[in-house]
Amino acid sequence: MSRLPPLELTKLPTGIIGFDQIANGGIPKGRSTLISGTAGSGKTVLALQFLLSGVRQFEENGVFVTFEEAPIDLMQNVRSFGWDLEGLLADKRIAVVDATPEPGEETITTGPYDLSALLARIENAIRTVNAKRVILDAIGALFPQLTDPNIIRRELHRIAAGLRQLGVTTLITMERTDEEGGVGRWGVEEFVADNVILLRNRLEQEKRRRTVEILKFRGATHHKGEYPFTIDGEDGVTIIPLSAIELKQRSSQIRVSSGVPELDKMCGGGMYRDSIILTSGATGTGKTLMVSQYIKAAIAAGERALLFGAEESREQLTRNAASWGVDFEQAEKDGLLRIVCRYPEVMGLEDHLIQMKRDILDFKPARVAIDSMSAFERVSTPKSFREFVIALTSTIKHLEITGMLTNTTSMLAGGESITETHISTITDTIILLRYVELHGEMRRGLTVLKMRGTYHDKDIREYTIDSTGPHIHGPFRGVHGILSGTPTYTFDSERSRLNNMFASAPDDPHAGA
Questions:
Q1: Does one domain contain both 201 and 304?
Q2: What is the DSSP string of 386-405?
Q3: CB 329: neighbour CB atoms within 10 A?
Q4: Which of 232, 295, 411, 427: disulfide with 305, CB 3.0–4.6 Å?
Q5: Among 213, 242, 271, which residue terminates a domain?
Q6: Domain containing 291 — which CATH number?
Q7: 41-57: per-residue pLDDT in tens?
Q8: Does the pLDDT at position 313 exceed 90?
Q9: Mean pLDDT score of the chain, rounded to an integer?
Q10: Which tens digit of pLDDT belongs to each residue from 7-36?
Q11: What residues act catalytically?
């Protein structure tokens, strides 16, 4: 039996950041695509961005048909994105068909439902501007008085077939009543359109989180599952294709200094240039100090460094660094350092990710530090936090930048934190900072838990902090359980200590009695 080679349908690039990646090239050309979502999920914005990208990037004019929102209101609403619909309308790059009902207009149909007049208006607009892309926004407003799903299915099919004959690619937006319910209100919409895209706007831990899912592409391939996206005034819709990230980043043999000479020796000569370093420890163990030394090494090498603060202000970070002899103020004036401080609560993780990427691409640093990652975890779900870390670290590694992340453990004496559990496999190097209680005194211990691609010191070493920074000393001996937070001592060392404690003085007349 002969077999034909697989044939992929021609795809039309959308121009929407991230969408073409999860759609394997774009939306199938010349077909109808249903975009369904609840209120506030971004249906109209996504559809308009598809239309405007066609005009601006691909020289493809478009028609926008609105069934619910008056054109004047629509044009005013999208000005927040910098989209000049009026100018494109005047230049005949787009055409708008107003199919909204007149105020007070009755919507009761007494005879057969006929859309011939509407289709004629849309066809005229398409021919006027030679459109290749068409948007039917909130088409459900056409059928408020209809209760028979068969009639709705027939009319939707009629619209889609008519536009397909005109050779245009059509997006149809429609409301759904529930995030996890049916695709549309009538239960027939998904069977009429060639393609179905679902937008969701879930409430998670008092924060809204938008996702997009390609439910079906008839005759074409696409990535499966949900992908987070965000909407802002600079780029409009930005989709973050986390599971579509490819592991193609290069690896370098070049090493850079951590800023602490003893730590560089423990790591076999320094950190790899394109590695992700996780510094984890309880509050007060010196994580921010390690970040300051890491940035100091970049400045000394004449490299740019970008510091993201999530728990302390720029002034506080600058003051703390100055107490250890690191001049952040001068480094900023010299153009070698940029400090960006944002509380995690001010926006969603997707928005944080987009802003951080923009900061990195704008400043072009050789090193990035984030203090601390656990602050972002408190405003997210475990799944969204891990997705955030994967997307951010992959960006850093693709740009061959050194990244240092800090994490705060919940227990002062140690133990694994939730953050470590989620991102330990993503990082290349893990440095653990721990408090160690010895004979009634709190001391600090440091160890390199893992370092990919090189030998590293396995000891748990004591370190101290003074006005010049951290100093790493020799390893702890005779002590076990430091990392778990329950140190114990060997019998020999404890017996020796007790003997010394109760040893008789040389001039004691009772010595040896």
A1: no
A2: HHHHHHHHHHHHHTT-EEEE
A3: 13
A4: 295
A5: 242
A6: 3.40.50.300
A7: 999 999 999 999 999 99
A8: yes
A9: 85
A10: 678 999 999 999 999 999 999 999 999 999
A11: 68, 311
